[in-house]
Amino acid sequence: MDILLLSNGKIAGNTHVMEFAGDVIVEQVKRTGAKHFLVIPYAVIRSSHDDRVAMIQATFDRLGLDCVATGIHQAADPVKAIEQAEGIIVSGGNTWVLNKKLHDLGLVGPLRKAVLAKGVPYIGWSAGTNIACPTIRTTNDMPIVTSAVLTSLNFVPFQINPHYLEASVEGHMGETRDERIQEFLEVNQHEPVMGIPEGTWLQLLDGQLSYHTANGKPLKLFRYGEEPVYFEAEQDIQFMMEISC
């Protein structure tokens, strides 16, 4: 496995998507030799799929990578496109729309086979990170589609909350992000949630899980009946791959 799960697409000062994780993306490309990346932009709602592919191509160019980005939405046979992909990138957007589309097109199995069995490198951010969990129940997105499907790719055995924000907004009387996650744990007591803030990512390489950050922010791990625990980038989080939900 060679998986990068980014919290988000951009941080302050970035002009290109995934730029804050540019070094690790370059390392992944060099390590795997992947040149042709299949982009899955189904989560994109407020702009075109073609524009999102072009944004990713611009990032490759910015990083000096001789890589080509192609959108799965342009493929006559999406399953075959996954089978032939040298690398896979799943864009952020609306997780519910993305996950439903993957199930509707029968792409969950092919994606799991490509990434888990064949070792095809995978990069996801936001929605693309949410779908790497067993389910998408810890997304921040609204379920704007009907017949929404919860189960997803299950690359990691725990839930992730991308864009995690530890804050109380003045004048806002609704629940904080922490309170929403605690609600999840009350109902799903054996399913820990990892909150990863903006500018951070998880790397899963050959079964080894590690946390990385471009801005020094720690991840926050939530487990039922316990106080949340912070983990810095240099700390060991491999135990999260051994949990059983």
UniProtKB/TrEMBL annotation:
It comes from Photobacterium leiognathi. Keywords: Hydrolase, Protease, Serine protease. This is Dipeptidase PepE. Gene3D superfamilies: 3.40.50.880. The keyword Zinc does not apply. Belongs to the peptidase S51 family. InterPro entries: Class_I_gatase-like (IPR029062), Peptidase_S51 (IPR005320). Pfam families: Peptidase_S51. The keyword Hydrolase applies. PANTHER family: ALPHA-ASPARTYL DIPEPTIDASE, PROTEASE S51 ALPHA-ASPARTYL DIPEPTIDASE. Signal peptide: none annotated. Coiled coil: none annotated.
